[in-house]
Amino acid sequence: MTSLKVEWTYRPWALVVTVTGEVDAGTISQLRDGIEAARAGAPVPPPAVVLDLTGVGFIGSSGLALLVEVSEECAAAGQELTLVCASRPVLRPLQLTGLDQVFTITGTLPPAP
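Above: the chain's sequence. Below: its structure in token form.
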């Protein structure tokens, strides 16, 4: 069984959701629930959402599909979405699907403006 941990912090400039573990069909609902809870619990709607995927060791097609959904939800809410990832297990699937051209991707957590 794969495991996944989802934590979040609210900063004035962004909601930062930190994901650790494997994102696959067995954990996708946990990730979706965590992101939804984080966005719903924000004291004020943040101008940006940052998904920190540096602790993710695997992301499957269901995880990629969820990233697209989250991107669309953020766009509809007027929020910028940034993915933080630098490891091959996450970057490679994004590159193979062309999603690296769709998302804003950085190797480190962006500094506060």
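The mean pLDDT is 93.
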